Amino acid sequence: MSLMIGEYNGYAFKDVYNPIGSMEIDFLPVDYFGMGEEFAICGILWDLYDEINDDLVHMSMEEIWAVLKRFNNDFTDVYEGLTSMYPDRKNEINRVFVNHGFFINLKPGNGKWDFGEPYMGWPDRYRPFDYFIDLPRYKDRILFQYSPGEKIGSAGDLSRPKRRTAMAPLGHCIRTKDKTACYTIDVVFDDNEYSPYTMRVNNIKGDIKFAVPPDRYKATITVKPDRTECGKVLTIRSEDFYKKYQKSVKNRYYLEHRFEPLGREEDSKEDPYRYYPDPSGEEAVTDESGRPIVLFSEKDAPKGFLEEEGDGSLLSILLVLVILFLLLFKKPR
Fold this sequence. Notes:
The chain is α+β, with helices and mostly antiparallel strands.
């Protein structure tokens, strides 16, 4: 839109998107360590509109706006809207999307992270075990080239062949203080007619956002830190989620969870006390409501734990009386 305003006002460099550069450049989603997706989208819209380009297509602002003004869940929806509304120009639209890398690149990578590949982790450097996009390469350079048969409209790759860029619905969120950058979401349905699936989402300032299947589908959702052993994996039942959905929408998250990766000192400490008798056994001591009463063996009990209430004060009184007795009946020299 800003470029169109610039053109309307007669700017000499109407195609320049400050501070990125000219939108005549075919930016790819994987450019700038994966930060180029916004510029690729901007370039697609500009190439569709700009009359002076090499893409053999020119659409008016009214034609493009007819698609953009509708609800689009992601940019793939925009592609599908354009090709369905203007089927006679589908080949030209396809060329623009391909030139900007909006297709599922199914060529394999080399199995390791190479400089320039997108990753999720520290913003200034890649660390071992950070999640990354393994892109195909040719002569030490990223090769992002379309091959016939690869699906056009989505910016994906071999590890994400069905990638969409949809946002999670409001309230579909887990809040955590865990610092892991990326999480794996496994969804398994009770009905075997529906295949299980896995999603990978990133941690956005303590929020893990993903869509729980609609309440008519009974499913188990497991959330765990990506590539990290965890002592408290989160498991959610879809029906439990929707019982509290109104509250989740109000709070903007469903619940808070601490994943506690294994290896922390506090996770490995043993309980210094033991129950006696075993509260879970047949000889458990219970109160009137049937709940186990926590008892300790004399050997393991904390100092003073087994003393009757008031024992400490009684001992103090006796000690004072003994001292007074000795002072009163002490023989004179």
